[in-house]
Each structure stands twice: as C-alpha cells, then as structure tokens.
Amino acid sequence: MGQAPSSPAESNGRDMDLRLWSPVIVGGGEWMYLGNGVTVTDRDFSGEIPDECLAHVFQFLGAGDRKRCSLVCKRWLFVDGQNRHRLSLDARDEIFSFLTSMFNRFDSVTKLALRCDRKSVSLSDEALVTISARCLNLTRVKLRGCREITDLGMEEFARNCKNLKKLSVGSCNFGAKGVNAMLEHCKLLEELSVKRLRGIHEAAELIQLPAGGSSSSLRAICLKELVNGQVFEPLVSSTKTLKTLKIIRCLGDWDKVLQMIGDGNSSLSEIHLERLQVSDLGLSAISKCSNVETLHIVKTPDCSNFGLIDVAERCNLLRKLHIDGWRTNRIGDEGLMAVAKHCLNLQELVLIGVNATHMSLEAIASNCEKLERLALCGSVTIGDTEIACIAKKCGALRKFCIKGCPVSDLGIEALAVGCPNLVKLKVKKCKVVTGEIGEWLREQRRTLVVSMDSDETEAMVVVDGEAENLEERRVGQGGGVVVPESVAGGNNNGGSRLAMIRSKLGFLAARNLGSWPFAIFWVLLVEAEIDFARLASVTDDRSGLEMSFELFLWTGGYWSPDDRYLGGESSRVGTFTVEEFKMSRVQLIITEQLGYEDNMKKLSWFPSETPNTKVDIETMNKVAHYGVGFGAATLYVVCEDDPYIGRRTGWNTSLEDDENLWLENPDDGNVGEHGDDSRDGNSSDEAGNFTEDESSCDGRRTNVDDKSYKRFEIGQEYMTIDSFKSALHKYAVKKRRDIKYKKSEKSRVIAICSNGKCPWRICATINSSSPRVVVRSLQEEHNCTWQGKVSLLTYSRISEIYIGEFRLNPNFSAQQLQEKLLARNINVPWSKCERSRLDCLRKFDREQDEQFSRLFDYVYELKKANPGSTVELVVKGTEFEKFYVCFGALKTGWKAACRKILHLDGTFLKWRMNEMLLVACGRDPNDQMFPIAWGIVEKENTPNWRWFLEHLASDLGLETGNGLTLASDQQKGLIAAVKELLPFAEHRMCARHVYANWKKRHSGADLEDLFWSAADSYYPLDFERKMQALKDYDAVAHADLRISLWCPWSRAFFTEYSKCDAVENNLGESFNAIRIARTKPIVEMLEEIRRRVVVSNDKKRLEAEKAKGVYTPRAVALLDQQIELAKDCRPLGFGLGKYEVTYVKNEVHDRFVVHLRNKTSCSCRLFVVSGIPCCHIASSLRLERGEEQDPKTRISQWFTADKLRACYCTPLGPVNGMNLWKVTTGLRVTRPPFGSPGGRPPGKNRTREKGEKKKEPENGKMPKLGITMPKCSHCFNGWIWCCFWSNDANVDLQHCLMLFVVHVSEGIMVM
C-alpha cells in the first residue's frame, strides 16, 4: 500500500520511526516538509503498478483491509470498485437512495448478498429492480430477511438477471409465483435454495418448470423449514438433470413427493433428508434412483431397516451414507448388513444414535474395502469388541471418529496395530477412555493425529522454545514469552486462529483488531493475570460501545434423562446489556411476550467449558459474561413445579392408544419421568366448511412412549406426596402389579406388594432440606406372579383415565369399560366400572350446572365484545328454554356480499341434553359456507322454528321473503314456519333427503341414476323426459316421486334470484359436523362454535386478500370446466348476438339458443340458475365481434373478488374467559331436565295387543318368514314353478291352477 518516503542521512532515530510508521502517498511531484529538518519527495511508488496487478493484490486482502485501502486515493478506489465481484449489503430500506451511486462504482459485481434484520424494514421491489438493472452480470444472489419483496419484484428481477446461476432465499414473503418467474426467465439457473419462504402456504400454486425453462441447467435444490414444501414436487420430479436434493425440517408428509421423484428422476446423486415425516415408503422410492452416491437420513424416526434395505439393494453406487437414528432403534444390524452386502463402493459412513453391533460392523469392514471415513456416535452397543473388529478388518480406513460410545482403553489399544492407513483419530465423550491411552497411541504411531477430550483442557504456550501448560507458566518464573503458534501464525487457517482467540476474549469479538495486535494483547493479558470475566463487564471507553449480546429462549419443553431438551420452541427475544440482564426481566418476557404461565420460570443453560452438562441458573452474572463474550446466550426454560410439557398443553385423552393414558397423568410431579410431545394438526376441507379436524382451542394431545417410562431409583425426587402416589399408580398399572400401602402419612409413604412373600418394597419421605419427596429405599425385585388385580386402580382413577371416552360416547357402558380393561389383562369388577361411569356423569352434570348458571353473564359479554349483535336467552322461571345468537359482523357480511340464499338445518346435542341446535348458513362469493346465526331450542317443531326465523328475518331484513331462497330438509315444522313467516320465499328441498325418503320404498342402482339425472336437469322439458323414463321403468316409483314435487328439488324449477344451482343442503349439514363441540357443556359448546367461525372466517379473509383477478377462484374453476366442454359445441350465428349452438358428444345432439346482446341468456338455463356462463355461451363468444370475447366478463357480479373481501372485512370481537365475566343478575339459570328422547327407540317394535293382526304391507308384498311353502301333490314342486315353468308332460296343469286359486283366495303365499 505504498512505501515510506526516504529521508536525509542526518535524521535521528525519532525521524526514522516517523518514516516507518507514517507513509505519505500523494501525487503531483512536489516536496513536503515533515519537520525536524526532514524533507521528502512527494511521489507515489504504487503508481507504476498496473491496475491488473493492483486488483490482484486486493483479492488477497480481508474485507476491512480492502475497505481502508480503497480510501487511500482515487485510483485505488476506482480499481477496487471495478474489480470487486462479491458484495454484501445490509438491505435496509434506508440505503435505497444510495443504490444508484453504489452500483455505479461496483458495476462488476457477480455475487450479491442482501441481508436485513428482523427489526428493520427491508428493501422493496423498486430497489430490487434498480439493483438488477445496474448489475446485469449477476450469477449468484442471496436474499435474507427481505420481507418487502413481492412476487412482482422477483419477476422483474428475473427478467433483468437472465445469467443467474445460483439463487438462495430465506425469510422472505414472496411466494410460488416469484419462484416460478425465476425458473421461467433464468434459464442458466443451476442451484436453488429456499428457506422459510412465508409466501408458500397451503393454497399456493405449484412450483414447476415452464416450457423451455431451466430444465437442462438446474443441478441442486435445497428446501429448508418450509410449511408447504410439497409445492416443489413438480419441479423436483420433472428436472431430469437434478443431481443434489436437500430437504431439511420441512413440515408435512413427504412420502408421496419422494415417490413421484423416484418415478421420474434417475439422475439424482446426492439426497439429504433431515427431520422430515418420511417413512420406509419414501426410502423405497429413493431406491429407484440408482445413481445415488450420497445419502443423508437424519432424525427421521419413521424410517427403519426395511427402507434402508431397499436403498442398499438398488443403490449400489452409494459412496457416502449418513444415518442419525435419533435413538429410535428402528435402524440396526439388519439394515447395515444389507449395506455391507450391496454397497461395495462405500467410502464414508456416519452412524449417530444407531445401535449397531459387531455383526454389522464386521460385515461392513470386510465387504466395503474402500471405506476411508467412519464415525460412530451416541451408540450404546458399540464397545471394545466392535472397535477391535474395525481395527482388524478396515485396511483402507483413514479417518475414524468415536463419540459418546462405551469404549474403553482396550478398544483404543487395538488401533495401534490395526487400520494401517489411519491418519486421524478422534475420541470424544467416551468417559472410560483416559488421556494416557492417547499419549501411548501417539508414541506407537507417530504419524497418527489423535484428538481426545483431555487435549482440549490444556491450553499451551511456547516458553523458550518448549510447550508448557498455561497454569504452570502463570506460576513459573523467568523465561521469555513468545506468541503461540496457534495465535501468531503457522500453517493453520488465520480465520480459525482469530476465532479461537476471540472465544477467549469474547468481549472484544466485535472490535476491529488485526491478528498480530490481538495475539500480542492476549499474551500480555495472560502474563498480567487479568480476570477475563471482570474485564468483560467493562465498557470500551474509547469506542463508546456498550457490552451487549443476543438472547435466545427455548420455552415450553422438558428435560430428558440424558439432559436433552425435548419439545418446545425457540424465540429470539432481543439484545441485552449486562446491566439489563436480570432474572425478573427474563421472567417478564416469558409471561407477557411469549404468553406462558407464571410457573414457567426454571432456567438452565450449557456453559462453554462443559457443553454437555446442563446447569440450573441461580444468578445471571455468569450467563451475562459468557453472553457478552460469545455475542449470544441461549437459555432453556421449563415449569418450576413440573418439567412436563403436558402441564401447559392440557390433558386430552386418546382412545386410539390406551397406553398413553396409563403412562401420562396431569397430576404427576415426578422430576425423573419424561414424555414426547405430539401435537395434532388442524385441517379444513376444500370448500372451507367446518370439519371435525378444523382448528379449535382444545388442549393439545400429549403422547408418551413406553420407552420414556422411568423406573424407580433411590434418590429420585417428587414434588409432593400425591405426585409420588400417582407415580405408584402408574407403575402398578404399567407393570400390572398389585401394590398396597403399608404406611401412608403426610411425610412418609411405604408401599409393598400385596403378596406377603414378595420382597418388593419402596419407601419415600419428605426431604429435610426441601419440600420435595425423595425415594429412600427400594427393593425392586418381584417374585410373585400376575393375578390380574390392581388394587390401586380405584374407580376415581379409572374415571380420570377414561373420561374422554365417556365424553365422546355417552352410551359407553360399564360392561364396555370392563372389557376394555380386561383387554389389558386387568380384571376390574363390574361394580367398580359402574361407579367410574357414574363418577364421570356427576362431573359432567357439575360442568353443565356451572355453565348454565352463567348464561346471562355470557350473553352480556357477547354483546359487549360484539356491538350490533343479537343475543337472546329465554328462560321459563329459572329453567333454560331457548338461546339465539347472530353476530353483527356476520349480519354485515351477508347483507353486503352474499347471495340471497339461506341453508337451514337442525341437529341433536350429544351429551346429557335433549335440546336441538338450529343453524342458518349462507354462501359467500367463493361458494363456501358463511355461518350467520345459530340457536338452541327444546325440540325441532313449528313454534321453535317460527321463533328462530322471526329473529333471523329481523336481523337480515328478510320481510316476507321476496327474492329469497331457502334450502332445507323435509322437516315438517320448518316447512310450516317458512310458509307462515316467509310466504314469498323460494323453498328448496334437499335432493339427498328426498331420495333417502323415496329410497325406503324404491331402491336400486337404476332408480338412483334416474332420480339424480332428473334432479340435475336444468330445464323442464329435460326433467319431464327423465321422469318419463322413470315412469317407463317403474310407474309406482314415478307416482311416489311426483308427490314430492310440491317443493322444488330439481334445478329445472329453480329461480334465477339466488344464482345457486346446488340441489343438496350440504352446507347446513357441514356446520352440524362439529361432533366434538356438541359433546361439551353448553358454554364450551357455544364458545367452540364461535371460535371455529372466527378461525374459518379469518382463514377465508386471508385467502380473499391474496386473491388475484376480478372473480373468485371457485367461479373461475367452474367456468374453466364449461370452457373445456365448449370444444364439443358448434355455434351458428344468426346476427345481432343470436346463436344456435349444437352440443355433440357421445352420439347426443342437443341444440340451444344463445343471446349475447342486451341480456345474456341460454335456453339450457345453466347460466340463469348458477350465474356461470355455460359451454354454449363460451363457444358463441368466439364468433362475437365488437363484444368482449372473454367468458369471464359474463360471470355474475355476485362472484367478484371485491365482494369476497367485503364479506370478511369485518371480524368478530374477542371474548374474555368466564373468570372475567361481569355478574349481571342474581338469577341462576338451571339446565332443563334430561331424559330419554321422545318416540320409540329405533329398531324397537310396538307391543301388540292379544289377537291383534299384523298390519298389511303397503306395497302389497307379504313377508316370506314363517310361511310354509305348499307343494304340488303331482310333482312335489312349488305351485308357481309347477304351473308356469315346468315342462313335464305328466303335470296336470288344470289341477295345479285350481289349487293355486284356492290357496291365493285363502291368503296363503305361494312360492
């Protein structure tokens, strides 16, 4: 960077120092006086260096040095800008104004990185387009946290940067359209990496290669942490040149995606699968890619030996195999032996958490002769025998890593004579291996590099040319100090050297110090014996910067026995200084910012000196010092009184796996027992209707694996005596042992086996130094046999376990419960099961009574939270009678945007209530369900329907029903109420209910087809033809069906006002699909319905905001179907917008008249009824001139995207919990009496009077049961066969016919 100017010979030493450390680089050929008689010539010696050489020198400088050099002179600034090919920018919105001048200087950039932190606003589409216009030669782009960039910006960026070869995006908000644009325009794209792309959701379009896209250039795809990564399936499966595929921590089922990939792509050579929901089906699909050379299967618990065997048998070219079994024991010797048998080219094998034995390792060592790198980590079955086998058989092994395995010095000794090509050995976390064996092995094999845990604990410096321990040097005397080789230089990488030093002095990690000054400063600190922790807490007065660090919190999880944090979620909570980092501040963040309970306050961490040992935090000082040193700190938080995730997520029983019920109990407080957290996902159907799996506010389900059950141990701690007893109950049921209490006191519990000769015994007492209960003595051996009895399994414990079963199935009997327990080899008397059933019923009754008593308060809270809503509660005295609710937001949405059609239906409440739930739903512009109002009444009859419709008509302004359409089943009370209140409304009958009633007398596949063909007819003549065909087939069935036409159930009789052609009442039925909500107490049920409506409407609102185009997706999809059918139409123009369209398909020739001017219409009536142009209109528009030819312009205005947004623009208001409700009245509402529903139970016949004859069947047919078939005396056959079917000449037909008439007249059935 220039040379120092020369000076006269008379200059003294001070001047010499000035010349050495004060370079002068100026141009102009003048003289400069430096003082003290020193005069130098003003000359730039670097001016003679060509620009190319100067640029080449700049390439070897670090980022900081290169920035400083660019400020020396204009020439260096120009050379640096013209030859800088890599550029990384802080992509905040504030730099937008500087982009033009910045890229005027750096116009040769080919590799660009744009990063923006979470707290800042990132660059927008305009800035991205500006960058792409300035940097046309970009080949690599990385976007991180650019949340303001949309699909439009990415599309314009792709148009400008057509030479792009590598794209990496993360934490951005654009979606599938932006990715598709990059694939369409960047035809040279070779690598695509996508991480946390928030714009890709469930409704996102598929990502696939366009015609003529980058199919011939794309080589690698990496998908990380995506919610809906399955949209990349068409891209991955259709890219024939794909070599590398990495899928890491993406949600959803990936088996189907991998099956498509395996069927369509044989060029894959490298596959990474990490933390995915992949089973053996996915691995079997991967095995079809026979060219795979590298395979990583990391923490995929559903993969087992079977899938690995398929991969090994077909992928014979496999060279690198990484398996992290996550200690699930699903991959073991069987799969590894298949690898040894078929993958003979294996060069690298990594096994983590895989319990392999000497059998599989010996097979691998013998067959895989090219194996050079082997890593065995976290396996409890790999010991000295396995290591000795590897040492004996693996002749080509060069690098060997052993970590966390029960290996001793004997196994390491075997490596002294085995593995002749071994150059590096790493032994970590093997507690039995000593440091002496490492020294001995180095002496035996001097070319072998041995790395062990003991090596890292000794920090070495060079003293007088010899290595010496740091602690010894600090107390030693004399000797010169030389900078350590690891600090001063050597062959090691400079970046790693600096990182090692900064790990010692983390508080200076952010300072801009060179390697040499930093290293010298480190040695001086060692010599001065300065306390690093104390020095870390001091601020840098020179720079004015305060010591701070980033804090990350893992919350909501629990600790496993081996100090692993299971479950939970990670959160970045902000930046802290040492002064701000207090225990109270962290607990406030956990409760208020993250929303956890107050008892979530037990903090732990892993110090850097012991990274595998969990340490509970008592004071925050040490954590703060380490956080400042390393720039970040991570804390792990669990409940103070209970480390289980199940305490926060709630208790929800599962009927599919009873073992979970016995192992997990909400009352347990054992510090040593742990379980895995399994959370049920939520989903909804395609039409946006309510389904049983839709999002709800129930507690998450907690599953506990059998392997997580922990045995009793001496010294084990429990929170309370009750929690210890609960653990005893679980032990008794799990082990099926009959345990009883010998002593049960407030401070002591002694339990023994009920068999007097059995030695099993346990004693637990309260600890003297803490309130916890500690196991003092334990004899865990049982010598008794199982007798099928568990005395600790009381009726209350049974009711706690199976309360969910009773809640979902009110008819669950004591006998069924007894059989369920007996299936678990537990014999419980019927009387105890009956008491358990009655105990559940009492709990439910108490819940109902409490919630009925607060109904008036609930009504007040709903009205306060949702102004303009109609909520009415009717009581008879104090007894509940009726309830009605219609929220103001739903009223506004229906009036503003929904078609004038209502679906009405009623359903029974499931649990200990005889009442009915009445509902009214509409259809939004996207033809999805829009709930409007619901109510609870005593029964489904005319007065109750009249009361419900009166409120509904008042809320929606229906008046007498002009222009209104109602759809319902054939409920008589509803029909009468509609005729009375809404006489001018069109009342449609649900065709499915009409068919179900008609089917009771007339069943058969042909009749069913004839019925639905008539129901789907759009015009009356077509309907009459279908009915005539039915009459020709069965006249009686035709006559019965004609009776039901007093209410329309066919499209032929639908009016044009509702623009809805649905013949079924599915929307009303879908609302009634909330089975679980109907099993809850009344307030919980109403709140569950309200929350489901909120979740469903919010989801539809987001979809409406993202909707593109003028019309809704459902309307466009229906129109596309008609456009597809238009290819079979032959339009003939008559002028003035009149056409005659012939529809020809399957030898059917139908002809219709179409009008396109003034008012669009077609004689087929599909457009009139549904509002969607039919295929005849779509085909005629092709010939129309002077008019808009796009069929979308003819779609009814009820289906516009603007109306869809207006439908959901007003959200419902949030409601407080019951504990915050205001007490509005002293009246305590009581629940109505519960009894058997009216009417005869299904399947039960009426008891007939003595001598009463059975009713004659209406269809004229007699039953065959109990009738003796008379025989012909001549032929001994049945009468019908004898008279009509016999060809025997000996049969007297006249005689048989006469007997036939006699028997028929007497009422005898002839067979």
From TrEMBL:
The keyword Transmembrane helix does not apply. Coiled coil: none annotated. InterPro entries: F-box-like_dom_sf, F-box_dom, Leu-rich_rpt, Leu-rich_rpt_Cys-con_subtyp, LRR_dom_sf, LRR_FXL15/At3g58940/PEG3-like, MULE_transposase_dom, Transposase_MuDR. One of its GO terms (cellular component) is cytoplasm. PROSITE patterns: ZF_SWIM. Residues 658-702, 1229-1262 are annotated as: Disordered. Residues 671-682, 1246-1261 have a biased composition (Basic and acidic residues). Keywords: Metal-binding, Zinc, Zinc-finger. The keyword Membrane does not apply. Pfam families: DBD_Tnp_Mut, F-box-like, LRR_6, LRR_At5g56370, MULE, SWIM. Residues 658-667 have a biased composition (Acidic residues). Residues 1152-1185 form the SWIM-type domain. Gene3D superfamilies: 1.20.1280.50, Ribonuclease Inhibitor (3.80.10.10). One of its GO terms (molecular function) is zinc ion binding. It comes from the Eukaryota. This is SWIM-type domain-containing protein. It comes from Microthlaspi erraticum.
